[in-house]
Amino acid sequence: MGYRMFLNSNDVAILMGVCNKTAKRYIQDIRQEYHIVNRKQITIREYSEYYKVPYDDVLRALLSRVVNGKLVRG
Length: 74
Known about the structure:
Blueprint: E1 6-7, H1 9-16, H2 20-33, E2 42-43, H3 44-50, H4 55-63, E3 66-67, E4 70-71
Helix pairs in contact: 1-2
Protein backbone atom coordinates (compact mmCIF):
# COMPACT_ATOMS: atom_id res chain seq x y z
CA MET A 1 0.00 0.00 0.00
CA GLY A 2 1.34 3.45 -0.90
CA TYR A 3 1.19 6.53 1.24
CA ARG A 4 -0.96 9.57 0.51
CA MET A 5 0.77 12.69 -0.79
CA PHE A 6 -0.56 15.09 1.87
CA LEU A 7 0.58 15.48 5.46
CA ASN A 8 -1.65 16.55 8.31
CA SER A 9 -0.69 17.76 11.77
CA ASN A 10 -0.62 14.22 13.18
CA ASP A 11 1.85 13.15 10.48
CA VAL A 12 4.10 16.15 11.13
CA ALA A 13 3.89 15.55 14.89
CA ILE A 14 5.10 11.99 14.38
CA LEU A 15 7.87 12.99 11.97
CA MET A 16 9.19 15.77 14.21
CA GLY A 17 8.47 14.28 17.62
CA VAL A 18 6.31 17.22 18.74
CA CYS A 19 2.75 17.66 19.98
CA ASN A 20 -0.12 18.27 17.57
CA LYS A 21 -0.38 21.94 18.53
CA THR A 22 3.26 22.55 17.58
CA ALA A 23 2.83 20.51 14.39
CA LYS A 24 -0.11 22.73 13.40
CA ARG A 25 2.12 25.78 13.81
CA TYR A 26 4.78 24.16 11.62
CA ILE A 27 2.18 23.45 8.93
CA GLN A 28 0.95 27.04 9.16
CA ASP A 29 4.53 28.27 8.68
CA ILE A 30 4.89 26.15 5.55
CA ARG A 31 1.50 27.26 4.22
CA GLN A 32 2.49 30.88 4.68
CA GLU A 33 5.89 30.37 3.05
CA TYR A 34 4.35 28.74 -0.03
CA HIS A 35 1.20 30.91 -0.08
CA ILE A 36 -1.13 27.93 0.31
CA VAL A 37 -4.65 29.17 0.94
CA ASN A 38 -6.91 26.56 -0.61
CA ARG A 39 -6.04 23.59 1.61
CA LYS A 40 -5.13 22.84 5.22
CA GLN A 41 -2.68 20.05 4.54
CA ILE A 42 0.77 20.26 2.98
CA THR A 43 2.42 17.90 0.55
CA ILE A 44 5.38 15.72 1.40
CA ARG A 45 7.35 17.68 -1.20
CA GLU A 46 6.49 21.04 0.45
CA TYR A 47 7.53 19.65 3.83
CA SER A 48 10.81 18.27 2.50
CA GLU A 49 11.69 21.47 0.64
CA TYR A 50 10.85 23.74 3.58
CA TYR A 51 12.95 21.72 6.05
CA LYS A 52 15.61 20.91 3.44
CA VAL A 53 15.28 17.19 3.99
CA PRO A 54 15.49 14.87 0.99
CA TYR A 55 12.04 13.81 -0.18
CA ASP A 56 13.02 10.13 -0.15
CA ASP A 57 14.13 10.39 3.49
CA VAL A 58 10.77 11.86 4.51
CA LEU A 59 8.92 9.19 2.57
CA ARG A 60 11.05 6.44 4.13
CA ALA A 61 10.44 7.85 7.62
CA LEU A 62 6.70 7.88 7.00
CA LEU A 63 6.58 4.40 5.52
CA SER A 64 8.65 2.97 8.39
CA ARG A 65 5.89 4.06 10.78
CA VAL A 66 2.92 2.59 8.91
CA VAL A 67 1.31 -0.29 10.76
CA ASN A 68 -1.86 -1.90 9.38
CA GLY A 69 -2.32 1.03 7.01
CA LYS A 70 -2.07 3.71 9.72
CA LEU A 71 0.77 6.01 10.70
CA VAL A 72 1.78 5.37 14.31
CA ARG A 73 4.14 7.03 16.75
CA GLY A 74 7.45 5.25 17.19
